[in-house]
Design goal:
7-stranded mixed sheet, single chain, Immunoglobulin-like, 22 strands, Rossmann fold, 4-stranded antiparallel sheet, globular, 431 residues, alpha/beta
């Protein structure tokens, strides 16, 4: 966040950084970054308080019990399983900070929340050495830790508890109690967004159905995209933001209005720049309420709403669009497509990464330095063209020149973005 970024009107920026504008063409009548990173703030029964935690798909499968307090297959984690259908990595933040369960004479839970009330300490004599004890920690019926010790002072904290035991004695099982989840407020969501600013993500999901809270996410996206050049999209429920950085999901799940936010956040984060989510089949665990008429589906597109609908026995994404509806000469119809936004966001992120890491304060702003920058950007655009994200690109489409002062450079280019096929019009002449 120390480097400048965002859009520009005139060449008057003070901070070193990359300032990049994307506008629609006027109509007549180096290394690409990986995608697949999501972020979500959740209300949980277990987990670290007020801290961003990074979890990969593999880590979620292997360590969900330690991280979230439940086995991978537990019903409580189906939303996160939906997210990881398409996301590779996610940053999570626990919104609710409550009270940790404890038993004053035995142990205190490492995390606050009601899941701590399912912790139990069992102490038995060791069968091989009568001077030692087996000290077990159980979460529900699952053994999560076992230590063989002679004295209480030898016990070390595990992933779930810190021990308070003074003297070891056999016990069939002592439960911890008093754990509470705590409440969630708008300030909890704001704290998450503040903490997330130093992380790079592709999509952020808002699980709240309250417009006042989802508006925090909308304004966060606008501020970071426009003022700081940090490119991502947020996924909200039933909030017509009219902005290309916001995806407005309006299809509820029968279990919870916002249940599909997890899966949609995953597909927005995980979709590559040369792909589209249009017609993508829902393979998650919620039950979408996706019965729409043709008229309602057409109206949803006009309103900038992302909806899931029934196609035979399957549920599919209707069109991969964002909430933008108000177009102008700078942002035309093509900006409504999430595939377009993915491409231009990738360009902004990759060009800024090259310039910030390789050129700022290192390469002279002379013909040789600007030629080097030009070569790097041409190479990057050729990669985009090879993977069919853009088309008709020629090296001469890019120009790099000295800016209004000796420390700045200006880059001008045009780009033709490829979108996946969505409509077929065929005329058959019968003779």
């Amino acid at each position: 966040m120390a480097l400048g970024g965002g859009t520009f009107i005139s060449q008057n920026k003070k901070l070193p950084g990359s300032y990049i504008n994307f506008v629609s063409a006027q109509n007549a009548s180096a290394t690409m970054g990986d995608r697949g990173v999501a972020a979500m703030a959740l209300e949980l029964d277990w987990g670290k308080d007020k801290e961003i935690i990074s979890v990969t798909s593999d880590e979620f499968i292997k360590h969900s019990l330690k991280i979230f307090g439940y086995d991978y297959s537990d019903e409580k984690l189906k939303g996160i399983r939906d997210l990881f259908k398409n996301a590779k990595k996610a940053y999570f933040y626990r919104l609710n900070s409550g009270v940790a369960a404890k038993n004053a004479n035995y142990a205190t839970a490492k995390c606050s929340g009601t899941r701590g009330n399912d912790l139990k300490i069992v102490i038995s004599k060791n069968v091989d050495d009568e001077k030692k004890f087996d000290v077990y920690t159980y979460l529900g019926t699952k053994e999560v830790d076992k230590q063989i010790v002679a004295t209480a002072s030898e016990l070390v904290e595990n992933d779930f508890v810190t021990f308070n035991i003074q003297t070891l004695a056999v016990t069939a099982g002592v439960n911890l109690s008093g754990g509470t989840n705590g409440s969630v407020t708008g300030e909890s969501h704001q704290a998450f967004l503040d903490a997330l600013e130093s992380y790079s993500v592709n999509a952020i999901g808002c699980t709240s159905s309250e417009t006042s809270i989802s508006n925090l996410y909308v304004q966060y996206a606008k501020r970071l995209r426009e003022d700081h050049g940090i490119k991502f999209q947020v996924v909200v429920y039933n909030n017509p933001a009219d902005y290309e950085g916001v995806v407005n999901l309006t299809t509820p799940a029968k279990e919870s209005d916002t249940g599909l936010i997890y899966w949609v956040t995953g597909i927005i984060a995980g979709c590559e720049i040369n792909k589209s989510n249009t017609n993508k089949t829902y393979d998650g665990e919620y039950t979408p309420s996706a019965d729409y008429t043709q008229e309602q589906l057409e109206a949803s597109i006009d309103a900038g709403n992302l909806v899931l609908h029934k196609v035979g026995d399957e549920i599919r994404v209707l069109v991969d669009i964002n909430s933008l509806v108000s177009t102008n000469t700078d942002k035309g119809e093509e900006f409504k497509s999430n595939q377009t936004i993915r491409v231009i966001d990738q360009i902004a992120t990759d060009v800024a990464s090259i310039f910030n890491s390789k050129y700022i304060g290192k390469i002279p702003n002379n013909d040789a330095g600007r030629t080097s920058l030009w070569n790097d950007i041409v190479s990057l655009f050729n990669d985009y063209q090879t993977m069919q994200a853009i088309e008709n690109f020629k090296s001469e489409d890019i120009s790099v020149a000295e800016g209004n002062d000796k420390k700045s450079v200006t880059i001008n280019t045009a780009v033709q973005i490829i979108n996946a096929m969505e409509k077929l019009y065929m005329t058959v002449v019968v003779e």
